[in-house]
Design a protein that fits this description.
This protein has helices spanning 4-10, 27-37, 56-60, 84-102, 123-133, 147-159, 183-196, 224-237, 241-249, 272-278, 291-299; strands at 14-16, 46-52, 72-77, 108-116, 138-141, 166-171, 200-203, 212-214, 219-221, 256-258, 262-265, 268-271, 282-287. It has 303 residues and is of the alpha/beta class. Strand 3 (72-77), helix 4 and strand 4 (108-116) form a beta-alpha-beta unit. The protein starts with a helix and ends with a helix.
Length: 303
């Protein structure tokens, strides 16, 4: 059983992405898994099911796997586009698809939209995007090397809007070593949104709690406790990227302390209420497995 600080750090933290590599399940078995997960004792860790817009029509045929007490929460994944014009056209189609799926109000809700920004994005394009998606929370993805630039752009847009803030989506790994950003790149992407109170979420490569070398990708995979912990502590203590990178590089579970009233790492502490507040801006991470993170936490005697 997790204690209060671990539950606060990991509450609704995992977006189940079972249809994506390396798991790459078909829709029906992925939905069957998710239907079990939302009824499990650890459903508190689960946020949404990552579902591409192209799969929405097929998904409607499987909604009977869910019920009003255990509904399907969807993180809608929009297509990647080449330029601003194609982006707006795709976003219009995405909005139509979201409205259609959302009509099944007792069984499904859309928690957020995730979509890659085109290279030629500017504040004007973001304003047009907001007019299309309305108040739906959105996390816009861009490569790690553009993170600081895009976060600044999103922050500029958010400062002029009264609706839900746009957030940034950072890719933290993949199925090959070259898909993993460095700790320094992640650290820069963590501390920048903290200064703007801009929401951030993560995707890929965060199957395991603590940073470790994994033979299947021939590199070190970032740990989700490292990443979520660094994001919250960096915001709370106004860390610079160098300090955040040190936490991201830590491979010792003994550095992490989860107590009833606070979470700490190497003496840097945040109490439960502040952690809950910081988690408003540190959203979730996509993982093709909901089992691996829990199994690892149990092995570390954290669950």
């Amino acid at each position: 059983m997790a204690n209060a600080s671990l539950e606060t750090l990991l509450a609704k933290s995992i977006d189940y992405a079972g249809m994506f590599p390396p798991c790459s399940l078909a829709l029906e078995p992925a939905f069957q898994n998710h239907a079990q997960y939302v009824r499990s004792s650890e459903a508190w860790m689960l946020n949404a099911f990552v579902l591409s817009i192209e799969q929405f029509d097929a998904a409607k045929q499987l909604l009977s796997l869910f019920d009003p007490a255990h509904p399907l929460r969807v993180a809608a994944l929009g297509p990647k586009t080449a330029n601003a014009d194609a982006f707006l056209e795709a976003l219009e189609d995405t909005d139509v698809a979201i409205r259609s799926l959302s009509s099944n109000v007792d069984l499904v809700s859309i928690s957020q939209l995730e979509m890659f920004l085109p290279q030629d994005v500017d504040v004007g394009l973001l304003k047009e995007a907001r007019s299309i998606v309305g108040n739906l929370p959105v996390f816009w993805e861009a490569p790690p090397e553009r993170a600081e630039q895009i976060i600044a752009l999103l922050a500029e847009h958010n400062s002029n809007e009264e609706s839900a803030a746009f957030g940034y989506k950072l890719r933290t790994g993949g199925v090959t070593a070259d898909a993993f950003p460095t700790s320094s790149q992640i650290a820069a992407a963590l501390v920048t949104p903290a200064t703007h109170q801009l929401p951030i979420k993560f995707t890929a490569g965060l199957h395991h709690p603590i940073r470790q070398f994994r033979d299947e990708v021939k590199t070190k995979m970032h740990g989700f406790l490292n990443v979520l912990g660094a994001a919250t502590l960096a915001a709370e203590h106004r860390w610079d990227a160098r300090q955040a990178a040190i936490m991201l590089e830590d491979e010792s579970v003994d550095s992490f302390s989860f107590e009833k009233d606070f979470f700490s790492w190497r003496g840097w502490t945040i109490d439960i209420e502040r952690l809950r507040y910081r988690r408003r801006f540190v959203a979730s991470f996509g993982s093709c497995s909901f089992d691996e993170p829990r199994e690892d936490l149990r092995a570390l005697r954290l669950l």
